[in-house]
Amino acid sequence: MKDFLKELIFWVVYMPGINRIYRVVYKKRIKNKLAEFKLSDLIVSIEPSNICNSKCIMCPYPKMTRPKEVMGIELFKKIVDDAFNEGVRNFNLNFYNEPFLDPMIFDRIKYLKSKGLKVSLYSNGSVANESIYDKIFESGIDRISFSIDGATKEIYEKIRNGLNFDETVKNVLGLIKRKKEKGFLSPKIRVVFVRQKANKNEVEEYKKFWQGKADSIVISTDDNRNSNSGFFKYFRIRKAFPCKKIWTEMIVMSNGKVALCCADADGEVILGDFNKQGFKEIWESDKFKKIRNLHLNFESNKISICKNCLHSYRMNLKSWWEK
User: Fold this and answer.
1) Which residues pair with residue 257 across a beta bridge?
2) What is the C-alpha separation between 284 and 289, in angstroms, rounded?
3) In terms of pTM, does the model score above 0.85?
4) How would you label 182-203 residue by residue, b for 16+ Cβ within 10 Å and e otherwise?
5) Across the chain, which distance is largest between two alpha carbons, in Å?
């Protein structure tokens, strides 16, 4: 019933007359939210390397053309220092990568924590085994989100090509057990389930299994980064809504360049380069301003990445009402 009501509201808002009124009200809401924005609210996502060991069916990683590389520690520190000096306090160590494959991941986390910053990352859990449990706790990382998109071996391995369900679950449960045995409060351990066609019937089974084990369970909306469904094509012809991520997250690729957003896997739209620029110069650049203005004017469909993102037409319709 809840999902039905959500869909009903969605379709009502897209009715021509109501849609025009909604956009006027929504734009006012967006301006009010932006007036409250501080750089301490921003998340800077740094990709330590663009190397992953899985070929997930919903992810564009297998088709990425940019060279595989590991970010040097000096460039990493430069990015962190630049952002920190401008008031940024939240960092994520992801883009298109498995963080625990990075040979310097714990050095990076410790550097961030030495400045009193909040640090999180997403991992597929495949290599987060007993050999690194103590390193994880010693690093001081605040939160790890383990992406486990199935409640059964068959479905999980269908989605996460190249990974082993039993090994992944063993690794995550082992880390949870060790954390409880040691009495540690961090990291907070989340499990994340990306709901899609292949696994949609396993949601309740998934919740039941992880309830009481992980600190939290996230059932996310459909991941459309690699989608060409008829549903997606239908909504792409509609006028887009502004995306919050242009203001709330900065994506830094392993080569030091700033990509448009989480959907820009190959760095099609580059907004800056930390090899040559500082944080403030990039954040306040004409490129960033142009992108933001297109979004504020409901014209993000003029940007190729945004035009091909379902969030522009569906998720962003309500995202600015959320806290």
Assistant:
1) 273
2) 7
3) yes
4) eeeebbebbbbbbbbebbeebe
5) 60
